Amino acid sequence: MQKRIMAFMKEHHMAEEGDCILAAVSGGADSVCLLLILQELAQAGKIRLCAVHVEHGIRGEDSRKDACFVEEICRQHRIPCKIFHCQAMEYARAHKMTVEEGARILRYGFFEQAAEIFRADRIAVAHNQNDCAETILFHLARGTGLKGLCGIPPVRDNIIRPLLCVKRREIEAFLAAEGQIFCQDKTNETLDYTRNRVRHQILPVLEEINSEAVAHMNQAAEQAAEAEALVRELTEERKDRYIRRDLQTVCISGKITEEKPVLQKSLLHKVLAETAGSSRDISGRHVQSLRELFEKQTGRKLSFPCGVEGVRTYDGVELKKDKEISDEKSCAVWDAKKTWILPPEGILKIPFRGYEIHTRILENNLQNEEIPKKMYTKWLDYDKIKGTMLLRTRREKDFLVIGPEGRRKKLKKFFIDEKIPGPKREHMLLLTDETHVVWVIGSRLGEDVKVTEDTRRILEIRVYGGNICE
């Protein structure tokens, strides 16, 4: 099995000699196997290895025991390890998402932080062939296109998945042969989560029909990925044949309807997403509506997400974005649900705006220093911040504390009172804790987190980049 994994890593260029790889270790069978396999590479001098564990605060004492287990196995193997603790359930509730989704957002945020701390080149996660098969079935059940059939990619950006070439039962057999114990997450056995129902109720039936069902689904995913890559390549080659742009308008030639349907849809999805500034809200339904617009009478109009309007012309269709929706707003549209975890000490980068946020903790013995009065440099009372600090854009029910007695103001009302234009509100970054907004970046700091003579620890935050100038 080890040779197969090494060959798989080489085939997909997962690591170069001398790279630092951060292994995401939950303590379960898959991640412990991943850690041991990567440890072999590290012992051979091929890579440097470090580890990260996120304790989500969901399973009480069991969850904390898993963290201790990971810390101990890393200590035994002399692997540097960073443990993070969070409250995924509270985070999910506050952000109106499933616990699975909330935990995933927090988890990958902490992975990136650990990668920054260890200066890791790649982050290795322990998805295997069974996980890929479950993902395909999940996508099929919800409705998907070709991309959803690709399952889980072996490499995406700095994330690598060395175990995608092996099944779960192979991993468990390897650990048994090694005499290596691992943690058992009881929540994996319940049917409360969608993925568990796929794992325990659907996949076993498919494997009864064919024992190699999981392997065959992974092979199909590879073929789908190859087909999707080809469609993407042909889309890039052909787009200049049918699409012409000027400052305000995107003109799509009616000759696009002569292409094969799969390329039509791909081309129209691409141009619609580019015009909108985001692919997040563009669905197959919108693409089909755009296709049908080519069959309508001249002058017919359709509205699409993000303020995009389509108009049937003599030659085809013109797409135009509402003038009142600026480029800045469209940037916020695709990023509206994005959340970054802000470390109390370190640097957080937000590439889409070119921001860097620098943080550090200071003891409040700076008697000769003034509290900064700059718009993008602030001191906060660190002990008054509740839980994990987050950077994000606005959401419903956001509020800011504006009075020393704890008086609140809804963020919407604050924006109105401060005469902040509507489009700008959508992309303003907010610093929040797990309960409310503590700083509208570039604007007001919440009264409840301001530094006083009683403050023991100061959180200093400096925001650089973007269009910031101080």
Distance N terminus to C terminus? 56 Å
Total of helices: 14
Q: How would you classify the helix and strand content by structural class?
A: alpha+beta
Number of separate strands: 21
Shape designation: globular
Taking Cα atoms only, what radius of gyration do you get, to the nearest Å? 25 Å
| Nearest-integer average pLDDT | 85
Low-confidence stretches: 323-337
Largest sheet: 6 strands, mixed
- Order of strands in the sheet with most strands: 3-2-1-4-6-5
**Fraction of residues in β-strands:** 15-25%
Helix content: 25-40%
Label this structure with key terms.
six-stranded mixed β-sheet, five-stranded antiparallel β-sheet, 21 strands, alpha+beta, 470 residues
Question: How would you describe what is shown here?
Answer:
With 470 residues, the chain is α+β, with helices and mostly antiparallel strands. It contains 14 helices and 21 strands. It has a 6-stranded mixed sheet with strand order 3-2-1-4-6-5, sandwiched between helices. Helix 10 packs across helix 11. The longest helix has 30 residues. The protein starts with a helix and ends in a 5-residue tail after the last strand. About 3% of the residues have low confidence.
SSE layout:
Layout: H1 2-11, E1 20-24, H2 29-43, E2 48-55, H3 61-76, E3 81-85, H4 88-94, H5 99-118, E4 122-124, H6 129-142, E5 155-156, E6 159-160, H7 168-178, H8 194-209, H9 213-242, E7 243-245, E8 249-253, H10 261-276, H11 284-293, E9 301-304, E10 308-312, E11 316-321, H12 327-335, E12 339-341, E13 346-350, E14 355-363, E15 377-381, E16 390-392, E17 399-401, E18 408-410, H13 411-417, H14 422-427, E19 430-432, E20 437-440, E21 457-465
Helix pairs in contact: 2-7, 4-5, 6-8, 6-9, 9-10, 10-11
